[in-house]
């Protein structure tokens, strides 16, 4: 959260007119899927149709589970979820910024895969991921909205975003799955998707570093900030 506020201040100082709006969505296991996606869609409906903000001026920004939610929003806009009101967009979102999005509940790995190769480097573990997935689903089944990597590549055709940035640390256990979802997004015509892998950085370092006292942020933070400046 601190990074998001700070990058908002940095962008305003650079002459950009921006505001940062957070969705304080309900957390699992008290509230389970699809509650969080319902809340995200409701907030966007309010922003677009009550506050009269154009999607072409909106950048969705999510890290980890928040990245999962951003992809769920894109899925819902193109393929409305049966339990969530339709969100009609008059235009594409300006962009979507995904920082190490959580895109699969499958924690299996080949011997040289990131789930095993990086398990002693990252702060996230496969056991934690499995527990979080169970608590998030709360008995619901996996689908293309809550587990984006299970969707076929053509599911993303016509995604309502002009630009997508996918950022991930090279030392993350999620690295392989993030690379895979980025590959699916890169094939979408009309959407410019950029994938950046930052060597020797772990999960969502731009948020973790300031929380534990680091004053100089890593490369992930810089990549995201430069991309935002270029798109605004």
Give a nutshell description of this structure.
38% of the residues lie in helices and 10% in strands.
Could you describe the 3D structure shown?
This protein is an alpha/beta fold and 232 residues long. The protein is 38% helix and 10% strand. The protein is built from eight helices and four strands, in the order H-H-E-H-E-H-H-E-H-E-H-H. A four-stranded parallel β-sheet has the order 1-2-3-4, with helices on both faces. Helix 2 crosses helix 3.
Helix fraction bin: 25-40%
Average pLDDT across residues?
A: 96
Strand segment tally: 4
Rg from alpha-carbon coordinates? 17 Å
Strand order in space, largest sheet: 1-2-3-4
> Quick one: overall form?
globular
Strand content: 5-15%
**What can be said about the biggest beta sheet?**
4 strands, parallel
The number of distinct helices, counting runs of at least 4 residues, comes to 8
How do the SSEs run, as a string of H and E?
Answer: HHEHEHHEHEHH
Distance between the termini: 20 Å
Report the uncertain regions.
none
SS-derived structural category: alpha/beta
Features:
232 residues; alpha/beta
Fold blueprint:
Blueprint: H1 2-13, H2 35-49, E1 59-63, H3 65-78, E2 95-99, H4 114-117, H5 126-137, E3 163-169, H6 175-186, E4 192-198, H7 205-211, H8 219-231
Parallel strand pairs: 1-2, 2-3, 3-4
Helix pairs in contact: 2-3
